[in-house]
Design a protein that fits this description.
The complex is a heterodimer.
Chain A lengths: L1 H5 L1 H25 L7 H18 L4 H23 L4 H21 L1 H4 L18 H25 L1 H11 L1 H6 L4 H27 L9 H14 L6 H20 L7 H22 L14 H11 L1
Chain B lengths: L2 H33 L6 H18 L4 H29 L4 H23 L13 E4 L2 E4 H22 L3 H10 L1 H6 L4 H24 L8 H15 L5 H21 L2 H19 L4
Antiparallel strand pairs in B: 1-2
Helix pairs in contact in B: 1-5, 1-8, 1-9, 1-10, 2-3, 2-4, 2-8, 2-9, 3-4, 3-8, 5-8, 9-10, 9-11, 10-11
Classes of the chains: A mainly alpha, B mainly alpha.
């Protein structure tokens, strides 16, 4: 039991939770607001590396480094959003993907700062509870992940969330009704991206050493596949999708089923092969994902309640 | 490095580098013109073409130039199969554009990692045979590079003529605007789409072979290039073959210049800046 709590298993669970949080943020960006961000792994990596670099180069305490990394990611995302978000969907997609690839390339090539492919670190856990350190940190991540999911759930029922949904459904219409859609999208994108940066920053002690391969486009696509598999319009879509993809392959297959080392490469390839196949099948035969679409029937009682609150 | 020398090497290397890029951008933009979505799985046409050519060339021992044609034709056939099996049914279900892009990512994963499962993760090399060394503008290049550049230009020109000098260009525009109306006008949508997807896959396969022949063949060939192809196609105004050719050559030369002065990573940065500047200049907004 003690070995289980301090070893590989809890490490994998922590990574899984971080991915659940990212997929939920992606749900807020794509499923609610309709921003097609293919740069989520790059933003994640930016938070991750800036936290590690601030902490080691400037010798700051961990919490301060996380705050600074979150703010920095927010500023960078504000810049990206300001440039890209008023373009059409396909340009946003390509632009954010390009940004993500550039971040990864820069981290590999600017090795004076990031140590390139050698990996940057080490960053230790901010506290030491002996064998329970990893478990305690896992619980902290769990807390933040639940907070994100709670926020996403609240968003679905709030007037602000309805504004964002209306931007996704028909942006020109929302604008014609006097809603500043670009500004709302920009603010929401900045906020959620800063959140992504925050999760990147708190993921650093889990990894101990950060590598460029943690932030490649493969991660972005894994998140997208998971979200679409789960259900892109449901709060728990990200959770279900990540458990069904990353959870199934990385945790159950790699820890429970003993696989001879000569087949390790094949496992990696068949994993992504199956991800792709599942994605194609889901999009073709159940486009709304495992959980299906949210039933958005108008509840008169709720609306009158909100009107009272607002007015 | 003197300025003249820099200019010479930029132009020569840039032109050689941009030959596969131009082919790929034209192939990519054909599909965009017809179906109006970004087909990420186009990357795998390059990979498939390169792998098939390397199979014929170094495994079966065919001549390099003899293996180009069947490999790129097969790449075109696989492109048609993906269209008929996945993309056409998906479009007929009325899938949104963002979903189509994500669907194409899925197809791309299936093809790329399928190749990895079949061929393993080894690197493969082409056996080009005897090569001659020539000088062009004072830069040393090999005869293979020159032939590949020539072939790429010929095929790109052929696709250009296909778009602008036959009525297929018009038919494609008619189909992408309103498929039902085009059908009433006597156009067979499946026949035209199959032809376009074949040509696109063919151009992609060739681009993959021309990329692989100067380095090595691995499963990331297309994937590493797809972002540049996307940027080039959008800079050259999507769906526009002429624009794709010009943007392909321009981007190849500019990124070479940046790479010669600084590091390769900054080539992508400059490309992204150009991309955003051009989109802003054109004011494509929601």
């Amino acid at each position: 039991m003690e070995q289980l709590l301090s070893g590989y298993f809890i490490y994998m669970l922590s990574i899984l939770l971080l991915f659940v949080a990212l997929a939920t943020i992606l749900h807020m960006q794509f499923g609610i607001t309709g921003i097609v961000s293919f740069g989520i792994a790059g933003i994640w990596g930016f938070g991750m590396y800036s936290c590690a670099i601030i902490m080691i180069k400037l010798n700051t305490p961990f919490v301060l480094a996380v705050i600074m990394a979150t703010v920095l990611t927010g500023i960078i995302s504000l810049g990206i959003g300001r440039i890209l978000l008023n373009l059409d969907d396909q340009s946003v997609l390509v632009g954010t993907l390009a940004f993500s690839v550039i971040i990864e390339d820069m981290i590999v090539s600017e090795s004076w700062l990031t140590k390139g492919v050698m990996g940057y670190g080490p960053v230790k856990f901010p506290f030491d509870f002996g064998i329970y350190t990893k478990l305690a940190y896992f619980l902290i991540i769990l807390l933040f992940t639940i907070a994100v999911m709670y926020y996403a759930g609240r968003l679905h029922r709030s007037p602000y969330g309805r504004l964002l949904l209306s931007i996704q459904d028909n942006e020109p219409l929302a604008r014609s009704l006097g809603k500043p859609t670009f500004r709302q999208k920009l603010i929401f994108f900045t906020f959620t991206s800063a959140l992504v940066g925050f999760f990147g920053a708190i993921s650093v002690p889990v990894y101990n050493f950060v590598f460029p391969k943690y932030i490649g486009p493969d991660i972005t696509f894994t998140l997208w596949i998971a979200l679409l598999l789960g259900a892109r319009k449901r709060v728990f879509g990200g959770l279900v999708g990540i458990v069904a993809t990353v959870g199934l392959f990385d945790i159950i297959l790699e820890t429970v089923v003993p696989i001879p080392s000569q087949y390790a490469g094949m496992l990696y390839n068949s994993k992504y092969f199956l991800y792709g196949l599942v994605l194609v099948l889901v999009l073709m035969f159940r486009p709304s994902g495992i959980l299906g679409d949210k039933n958005r029937s108008i509840n008169i009682k709720n609306i009158s309640k909100f009107e009272k609150k607002e007015g | 490095m003197t300025f003249v020398m820099f200019l010479k090497s930029t132009l020569t290397i840039g032109l050689l580098e941009s030959a596969p890029l131009m082919l790929a951008a034209v192939g990519f933009t054909l599909i965009f013109c017809l179906n109006g979505f970004i087909n990420i799985a186009f990357a795998e046409n390059l990979t498939i073409g390169a792998y098939l050519a390397v199979t014929f060339n170094s495994m079966l021992g065919w001549n390099f130039y003899a293996s180009i044609i069947p490999a790129s034709v097969l790449a075109g056939v696989i492109s048609v199969i993906t269209y008929l099996v996945v993309f056409r049914p998906a479009m007929r279900r009325g899938m949104g554009k963002s979903e189509m892009i994500i669907l194409s990512v899925g197809v791309s994963f299936v093809l790329r990692f399928g190749i990895n499962l079949i061929y393993g993760s080894n690197l493969f090399y082409f056996n080009v045979g005897k090569t001659y060394y020539l000088t062009l503008f004072g830069m040393g290049i090999t005869s293979t590079q020159l032939i590949c550049l020539g072939l790429a230009l010929i095929i790109a020109l052929g696709l250009y003529l296909f778009m602008y000098k036959t009525n297929y260009g018009q038919i494609m525009r008619a189909l992408s605007d309103n498929e039902e109306l085009a059908t009433i006008a006597g156009i067979n949508p499946i026949k035209v789409s199959v032809l376009v997807w074949f040509l696109s896959g063919f151009a992609g396969g060739l681009a993959g072979i021309f990329t692989g022949v100067f380095t090595w063949v691995h499963s990331g060939i297309g994937w590493n290039m797809i972002l540049t192809i996307l940027l080039v196609a959008i800079i050259g105004r999507v769906g526009n073959v002429r624009g794709a050719l010009i943007a392909g050559a321009g981007v190849g030369i500019i990124t070479t210049a940046v790479t010669l002065v600084t590091k390769p990573a900054y080539g992508a940065v400059v490309l992204l800046i150009i991309f955003i500047a051009i989109l802003k200049f054109r004011k494509v907004q929601v």
